[in-house]
Amino acid sequence: MTDYKSISLSGRKKDVSERDMTFMEKLYLPAIMKGMGITLRHFFRPKATIQYPEQKREFSPVFRGRHILMRDENGAERCTACGLCALSCPAEAITMTSAEREKGEENLYREEKYASTYEINMLRCIFCGLCEEACPKEAIFLTQDMAPADYRREGFIYGKEKLVMKIEDPKK
Amino acid sequence: MPKVTIDGITVEVEPGTTILNAARKIGGDVVPPAMCYYSKLKGSGGKCRVCLVEISKGSDANPNPMPKLQASCCTPIMDGMEVKNMTSPKVQDMRKGVVEFLLINHPLDCPICDQAGECDLQNLGYNYGVGTTRYQEERRTYERIDIGEKIQLHMNRCILCYRCTYVADQLTDKRCHGIINRGDAAEISTYIQNAVTNEMSGNMIDVCPVGALTDKTFRFKSRVWFLKPYNAHRNCDKCCGKTTVWQFGNEIYRVTARKDEFHEVESDESGNPMWICNDCRYEKKSLSDWIIEGLRKHEGWSVLNQGKYMKATEKVVLDGDIRLQIGRAEDRKKISMNGTNTLEQTLSDGN
Fold first, then answer.
1. 3-state secondary structure at position B35
2. What CA–CA distance (Å, rounded) separates A154 from B344?
3. Cis peptide upstream of residue B107 (ω within 30 degrees of 0)
4. Domain holding A120: CATH number?
5. Is A35 a member of any domain?
6. What is the DSSP string of B119-131?
7. Which of these, B225, B125, B132, lies nearest to A85 by C-alpha position?
8. Closest to B111 (Cβ–Cβ): which among A80, A92, A97?
């Protein structure tokens, strides 16, 4: 039967000896020089970090960031408040109320029904993109931007003023 | 009593029963879909052609198969008849074609339509139709007409099942709407801009299989799958007062009749359909008007079940402190801390 102290499950077990250090070891200098050498070598290696926010890394083309509610080519909102995004949302982050389009608002809303309020709770959202997939009107998309940080919880509940595409926005 | 075999399942029914009703007696997958037939309305059926079935054996007396598919809603059974519905490839192929025909002039505005989620045509298209359309011509459209302040008519969505005119004929004292024009130009309309204001006219919203007739008081309020349906009743002198109220939180968004598995109005104990009056449907939208009986269940596949917890939930007891003490006592036993308090002592100390 082997001594249980000699068993090493990881195979990397080292026994620590308690012998006295030699003179060279007591000087410490060779060890310090060795360490400084390693540090110096890293000065000339490529850096792993970047200077955020001046520099930004490129996202993958399939990156899913904060949402945008699109307008059509005439600038009218595409969303008709059909509720399929809220239905598909696994985190139940989306709520909306709908209203009927009045006469004279045809340039604002594409269909006869539109979302009078549309809210996404960014604290709940898991950026899975199912809302984008469910949308029958190609209205909601997840962009390449990240949802910025905030000091208050209320700031993470995005209403239409934050979600609807600005008219001067270039087409994404 | 005559026996009829539908998809290999034999059932005994009264003489004169239609194939569709015999299939409904069996239930499940063998029931042909029906868009125009409504068992509670006399004379309905025979128009939409989605319930066609193959009759592979006419009867015991004349075992020849019928050469063409028959409309199951208006073909009475014969003794020894054998019917194929789901097991017949001919029927499946036909149904795909009929769905395509029904959808030719139907606008694909389900995202806007209030009926979406409980629409028979949506279910039919989903179960039997193909995902694409071959139709390239312009769809038939109508001028929108106003038929009163409670009912919204979308003639573009109508499939001309005639159910609503039967409701008006059989439930109300004076019919003021019907189908005018012929063939492709046929449309539901009122005669010279009349408003539909009969007492029981609201029931045509419930019988409409598509979103052609919808409740104006519920128009664009919410989507049906976000609402919770409860059975409720009240004392009403005009109707039975037994309805389904659709709630969002503590607010009643709409009131409808109770619908069974075939999306028809349920019957009460004595077999009378529980139609509801306009007063119950449009005016009573406060929780104090109704006595709530309980949550209503839908078919397992229905989108109306989305996000609803049908099981009764147990009341949560906040006993975290006691459980903590129990856990500690057990831990002490495990690490054999002798001489410490037992569980009873610990609890009585309030430690």
1. coil
2. 47
3. no
4. 3.30.70.3270
5. no
6. -HHHHHHHHHS-S
7. B225
8. A80
pLDDT score of B178 = 86
Residue of A nearest to B223 (CA): A83
Residue A159 lies in a domain: yes
Q: Average pLDDT by consecutive 10-residue portion of chain B (351 residues)?
A: 92 93 92 94 92 93 93 93 93 94 91 92 91 88 87 92 91 85 85 80 93 93 92 91 92 93 91 92 92 85 78 79 83 67 62 46
Q: Which CATH number fits domain B120-218: 3.30.830.10, 3.30.310.50, 3.30.70.20, 3.30.565.10?
A: 3.30.70.20
Rounded to whole angstroms, the Cα distance separating B340 from B332 reads 8
pLDDT band at A167; cut points 50, 70, 90: confident
Query: If pLDDT is split at 50, 70 and 90, which confidence band does A169 have?
Result: low
Mean pLDDT over A53-80 rounds to 91
Q: Which CATH class is domain B3-102?
A: alpha beta
Token pair belonging to B346: 């610990």
- Chosen from B223, B303, B305 to mutate, greatest number of chain A CBs within 10 A: B223
Instruction: Give how far B62 is from chain A: nearest CA, Å.
Output: 52
Contacts of A100 in chain B (CB under 8 A): 219-220
Residue A171 has pLDDT above 60, yes or no: no
Nearest to B220 among A86, A92, A100 (CB): A100
Q: Chain B: nearest CA to A84, how far in angstroms?
A: 8
Contacts of B85 (CB under 8 A, 6+ apart): B6, B7, B23, B30, B31, B32, B53, B54, B72, B91
Residue A99 has its nearest CB partner, among B111, B220, B225, at: B220
Is the CB of B220 less than 8 angstroms away from the CB of A81?
yes
Q: Do A82 and B111 touch (CB under 8 A)?
A: yes
- A-chain residues near B110 (CB < 8 A): 82, 136
At B344 the pLDDT is 65
CB contact under 8 A, A113 and B225: no
Q: Quick one: pLDDT at residue B347?
A: 65
| Residue B132: both structure tokens together | 């694409």
- The residue segments making up the domain with residue A100 are 67-163
Q: Which residues contact A76 (CB under 8 A, 6 or more apart)?
A: A106, A107, A108, A109, A110
Contact check, Cβ <8 Å, B110/A100: no
Provide the shortest C-alpha distance from residue A143 to chain B (in Å).
23
B305 vs A165, higher pLDDT: A165
